[in-house]
Write a structure and sequence with these properties.
The protein has 341 residues and is α/β, with parallel strands linked by helices. It contains 10 helices and 16 strands. The structure holds 5-S-methyl-1-O-phosphono-5-thio-D-ribulose.
């Protein structure tokens, strides 16, 4: 099963090659990010998206933007790295993988001896390690999660937490890919995930391409699906998991968790260790990104709400730990009560 690479080095190694996810599923277009503006725009407009993928793109972007200045002094390069890091960090506030990756890169820069060339070379290796480690963590999440899927299981997911959102085979979709490779053909259902439709545009595209059975529904249909047709398991990704197990993920995840609880459906979260934020005690402290009203009032060129109405558009919500049956990470399957130190 050939899995896509959502973010990697460009052929010349001087840029960040991404799949432009704004254009999927209609068009498959890759582009190389080489400037700070290009990196910032790609993250803010969700050309690259998903917590692990934006962390990786942020780290690689720092290198791509810094590399042309490698001949500068050590002090100048470190100052420039901090400036670029701060600008990339400010793009989206909720996914912890972005500040996690940038902090790691800046620590690497500080501890590297030598001149600008040496620092840029070390940063390139560090960014590549972040990508490789994410790939390995996705694989382990898949291996821990696949046994949770009985033969022919019916699985409901939300948004896209697959290969497009990570450096590897995904988080929530990883057990599904591993199960499929192992001959267990699960049946996947996905909420379209308004307003930007990551479920219907991206998850359906990924799984269809992999030959895995996929059914798309609108977000409001999940309860009816559970009652009328039955779901064995809900599995979603995460943008930030607090020390107490509260989970921030795509808006609509909290709805799904409540619906799953009411119907007695296990609600599982899958995420790499880089998404665990032990410095945040609970979900109440997680900053939720608020996005443009246009995302709600427009579907493509079509206006779907009258001019001038008030719009509520948080990009994420927080599911309280008590609604989370289990959390799968690259370290194993965690059960309540959660305490991530
Ligand atoms: O706004 P997005 O598309 O970046 O939101 C993505 C999600 O909420 C994902 O579920 C989460 O980042 C996990 S990705 C493995």
């Amino acid at each position: 099963m050939q899995i896509i690479e959502s973010v990697r080095w460009s052929d010349d190694g001087l840029g960040v090659r991404i799949i432009d996810q704004r254009l999927l599923p209609a068009q498959f277009v890759e582009c190389d990010l080489r400037t700070l503006d290009a990196v910032i725009d790609a993250i803010c407009t969700l050309a690259v998206r998903g917590a692990p993928a934006i962390g990786i793109a942020g780290a690689m972007g720092l290198v791509a933007v810094l590399a042309p200045h490698a001949n500068e002094s050590r002090e100048r390069i470190l100052a420039r790295a901090r400036e670029i890091g701060a600008a990339i960090r400010a793009t989206r506030p909720t996914a912890v993988n972005l500040p996690w990756a940038l902090d790691r890169m800046l620590r690497c820069a500080e501890r590297t001896n030598g001149d600008g060339e040496a620092i840029v070379a070390a940063l390139r290796d560090e960014a590549t390690s972040i990508l490789d480690e994410d790939r390995a963590m996705c694989r382990r999440i898949g291996e821990y999660g696949a046994p949770l899927l009985r033969a022919g299981a019916r699985v409901l997911t939300h948004c896209n937490a697959g290969a497009l959102a990570t450096g590897g085979i995904g988080t929530a979709l990883a057990p599904i890919y591993v199960a499929a490779v192992g001959g267990n053909s699960v049946e996947v259902f996905v909420d379209e995930s308004r307003p930007l439709l990551q479920g219907s545009r991206l998850t359906a595209w990924e799984l269809q391409r992999a030959g895995i059975s996929i059914t798309v529904l609108t977000d409001g249909m999940a309860a009816s699906l559970m009652r009328e047709r039955g779901i064995d398991l809900c599995i979603v990704g995460a943008d930030r998991i607090a020390a107490n197990g509260d989970v921030a993920n795509k808006i609509g995840t909290y709805n799904l968790a409540i619906t799953a609880r009411y119907h007695g459906v296990p609600f599982v979260v899958a995420a790499p260790s880089s998404t665990l934020d032990s410095a945040t005690a609970s979900g109440a402290e997680i900053v939720i990104e608020q996005r443009s009203a246009l995302e709600v009032t427009q579907v493509g060129a079509k206006r779907t709400a009258p001019d001038g109405v008030c719009i509520y558009n948080p990009a994420f919500d927080v599911t309280p730990a008590e609604l989370v049956t289990a959390i799968i990470t690259d370290q194993g399957i965690h059960r309540p009560p959660y305490r991530f130190s």
